[in-house]
């Protein structure tokens, strides 16, 4: 069996640090949406955001509805293709809804920029973004991220939902992937 030391360069945030930060974000979101009249439509971007999503929504103290999308701008490597495809769309009609997009990481900004515009065109009342991680040094398109868990350096991050070629999503912490894993 491989151990953590074989693929993780260093741990960025522990399970406890993530839990504390996610609770802070939930409290902030609860406060910001306390006067909403219709349930907040929380849209998790599969697969990466799923772990963050479940922890975040569990701590919201406002009415919410669940929905999910699959949007892909990535292949099985670490380079963004720059093109966004919706592989699974919402089950709800976004028209007239307050939408909170829940994402794992904003990197080039391509995916989130596309999704924000998509929901505005579909007639959403409001569109906000909660992202566990933000990697601002890699931004190609300027996007407004309303709620950010942690700002991270230009490294490849895995764990707590984030993958490298589908691996490591179930790690309870956030770690920097060793370069030797992906630059063979
Ligand atoms: P963007 O469209 O370039 O902002 O890419 C966002 C998507 O790229 C995220 O939803 C992730 O799936 C993926 N991604 C970007 N950076 C990382 C990383 O460091 N680790 C894991 N996935 C990443
Ligand atoms: Mg993703």
Characterization of the model:
- It is globular and about 50 Å long.
- It is built from four helices and nine strands; from the N terminus they run βαβαβββαββββα.
- It is of the alpha/beta class and 184 residues long.
- The protein starts with 7 loop residues before the first strand and ends with a helix.
- The strands form two sheets. A six-stranded mixed beta sheet has the order 4-3-2-5-6-7, with helices on both faces. A three-stranded antiparallel beta sheet has the order 1-9-8.
- It binds inosinic acid and magnesium ion (MG).
- Inosinic acid (IMP) binds at residues 48, 73-74, 80, 103-111, 156-158, 162.
Number of domains: 1
pLDDT < 50 stretches: none
Largest pleated sheet: 6 strands, mixed
User: What is the SS-derived class?
Assistant: alpha/beta
Percent strand equals: 25-35%
Q: Sum up the overall morphology in one term.
A: globular
Q: Residue-averaged pLDDT, rounded?
A: 94
- How many β strands by DSSP? 9
Defining traits:
184 residues; alpha/beta; Rossmann fold; six-stranded mixed β-sheet; three-stranded antiparallel β-sheet; binds inosinic acid; binds magnesium ion
Write the topology of this structure.
Layout: E1 8-13, H1 15-32, E2 40-46, H2 50-58, E3 64-74, E4 80-88, E5 98-106, H3 110-121, E6 126-134, E7 147-151, E8 157-158, E9 174-177, H4 179-182
Parallel strand pairs: 2-3, 2-5, 5-6, 6-7
Antiparallel strand pairs: 1-9, 3-4, 8-9
Inosinic acid binds at residues 48, 73-74, 80, 103-111, 156-158, 162.
């Amino acid at each position: 069996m491989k151990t953590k030391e074989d693929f993780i360069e260093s741990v960025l945030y522990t399970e406890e640090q993530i839990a504390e930060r996610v609770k802070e974000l939930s409290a902030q979101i609860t406060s910001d949406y306390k006067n909403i009249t219709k349930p907040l439509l929380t849209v998790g971007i599969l697969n990466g955001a799923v772990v963050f999503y479940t922890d975040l929504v569990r701590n919201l103290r406002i009415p919410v509805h669940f929905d999910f999308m699959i949007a892909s701008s990535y292949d099985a490597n670490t380079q963004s293709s720059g093109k966004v495809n919706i592989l699974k769309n919402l089950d709800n009609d976004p028209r007239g809804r307050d939408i909170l997009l829940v994402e794992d990481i904003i990197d080039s900004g391509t995916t989130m920029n596309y999704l924000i515009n998509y929901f505005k065109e579909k007639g959403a009342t409001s569109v906000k973004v909660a992202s566990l991680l933000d990697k601002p040094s890699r931004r190609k398109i300027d996007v407004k991220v309303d709620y950010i868990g942690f700002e991270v350096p230009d490294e490849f991050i895995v764990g707590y939902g984030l993958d490298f070629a589908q691996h490591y999503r179930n790690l309870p912490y956030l770690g920097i992937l060793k370069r030797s894993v992906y630059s063979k």
